[in-house]
Amino acid sequence: MLMPESAKKGYLWVNGEFKSWEDSTTHLIVHGLHYGSSVFEGERAYNGKIFKGPEHTARLFRSANILGMNIPFNASDVEQAKEELVKKNGLTDAYIRAFVWRGGEEMGISAPASSINIAIGAWDWPAYFPKELRDNGIKLTQVNWKKPAPDTAPTQAKAAGLYMIGTMAKHEAMERGFHDALMLDYRGQVAESSGANLFIVKDGVLKTPIPDCFLNGITRLTIIDLAKKHGIAVQEKVIMPDELFDADEVFLTGTAAEIVAVGQIDDHHYTVGSVTRLLRDAYETLVGKS
Ligand SMILES: Cc1ncc(COP(=O)(O)O)c(C=O)c1O
To answer: Is 158 a catalytic residue?
Structure first.
């Protein structure tokens, strides 16, 4: 995913100050870069309004807290900075990236006294998957990389280090000609894709894995809520790979990916069904997507 050139004309908010793209730099010797002590958020604004901004800010603070990092700002400072940044960069539909990292004052594994830094960027990022896949869905392939156990990695934090696995999984899938990876967890249960939660539909019932070793996405929770409002039964349950192949519909949910239908998992094909289309429409209406 290439960064749009327009982003490079904008500003970032860095530790409390707005800085130009060129001035928003950090030293190479920082703990966050060497040891993965970094967490982040991905958010979208539609028509100038950040969708579920407070929920994303709350998750950023929770993620930082899990990694033992105390953000030196209040949630309301971060909320205000995000709003101002979107305006300052002249954006109405935007992707917003807030991130937190440990500085380089201590460069051993332990770094309890190092600075905790926070920055926010905002840029134009229209669609995560090509728009022409909307009617037929994306192609997933099961990869070998697994989601780790919650006592092996901080799986409830949106921690940069965890995305090392996601990137390797997605690269593996793309090298095989697929759009994304289907990831199982350490128990062999269906988990999610490299960057979005997964739902299946069987006989009109919406089913999704229990998020006990991956992010309980804000979009996932929104879809569960919308489904219930539309009278669709929802089950959060263990899903084994075999159940996928018996499903009528499959789709992914995430801030970046939004609601994206899955048209194929390895050799198995799906049509973009009525439940997927109904929930995708309901989501797009809720977020104010034009
Ligand atoms: C690995 C992973 N799972 C799930 C999600 C979906 O989370 P959300 O809906 O909060 O964006 C994301 C995106 O943040 C993600 O990166």
So the answer is: yes
The residue from 92, 123, 154 where one domain ends is: 123
Total number of domains in the chain: 2
Residue 187 structural domain = 131-287
Choose which residue among 63, 140, 215 to substitute to test ligand 1 binding: the one with the highest number of ligand atoms within 8 A of its C-beta.
215
Final residue of a structural domain among 82, 105, 123: 123
Indicate whether 157 and 277 sit together in one domain.
Answer: yes
- Whole-number pLDDT of residue 128: 85
The pLDDT tens digits of the residues spanning 124-181 come to 987 888 888 988 999 999 999 999 999 999 999 999 999 999 999 999 999 999 999 9
Same domain as 108, residue 157: no
Weakly modelled stretches of the chain, pLDDT under 70: none
Q: Are 262 and 201 in contact (CB under 8 A)?
A: no
Give residue 218 CA to ligand 1 midpoint distance, Å: 7
3-state secondary structure of 252: strand
What is the structure's pLDDT at 123? 95
Do 118 and 230 have their domain in common? Answer: no
Clarify whether residues 190 and 244 are in a common domain: yes
* Residue (of 118, 97, 90) closest to 9 by Cα position: 90
**SS3 for 227?**
helix
Is the distance from CB of 44 to CB of 287 less than 8 angstroms?
yes
Mutate to test the pocket of ligand 1, among 182, 219, 225, 286 (most ligand atoms within 8 A of CB): 219
Identify whether residues 117 and 136 lie together within a single domain. no
Q: Which residue has the tokens 């992010």?
A: 215
Task: Based on the fold, state whether residues 114 and 181 are members of the same structural domain.
Answer: no
pLDDT score of 74: 98
C-alpha–C-alpha distance, residues 270 and 287, integer Å: 26
* Catalytic residue from among 147, 158, 170, 207: 158
| Closest C-alpha residue for ligand 1 atom 7 | 217
